[in-house]
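ingest -> validate -> predict -> emit
validate: passed (alphabet ok, no gaps, 238 aa)
predict: started
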Amino acid sequence: MLKIRNLHTYYGAIHALKGISLNVPEGKIVTLLGANGAGKSTTLKSITGLVKVKEGEIIFKGEDITNKPTHEIIQRGIALIPEGRQIFPNLTVRENLLMGAYAREDDEGIQKDLDWVFELFPRLKERINQLGGTLSGGEQQMLAVGRGLMSHPKLLMLDEPSLGLAPMLVKEIFDMIKQINSEGVTILLIEQNAMAALNIADYGYILETGNMVLKGSAEALLHNEDVRRAYLGVGKAS
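emit:
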């Protein structure tokens, strides 16, 4: 579904992505791991046109979308849930969700997706008229994901969805990601919690200072000794 080839992205003189390549197959969960500053968020911003790519190509469903305007990329079926949630605090839950469907004109489809979001997140339905800024951190994360789903994406990209959440909520968020994937949405996941990410993913990639240093099935990465030491906080695989 998504293919990235030899991607180079800069912030001024800083070479943030140094020729990375990755594939996100349709219907799968792919996770991108790495320390802070590795280039994970820059990868997502490059895909969505929020930062310009200097070299390389991004192919989505057979079409080159490299450096296309962000609104066109969203209309093609890619949604990004940014780090830190970035909901609209002064809009209600309902208004926040409908902002995710701003580019759509299919009223029936919008209502169907709204009902789906409320099935996924019953708490949002309970708080439909509540201002986004008054929700808890976990509820705001649910709202951010729900807003992304309202664009009816084929590919949902999540940037650190568990950041700052209590352990019980983290499990709930990851269960939700699996549920969304099971209903036909392809997932590209950036996550500091490498263990949790690899436990739900099909494939994984590891970035270090803008370079892709390791890739493989999630199961293989879970049992890779270097990965276990550097990212999972455990010693040798038994």
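DSSP finds ten helices and ten strands in the chain.
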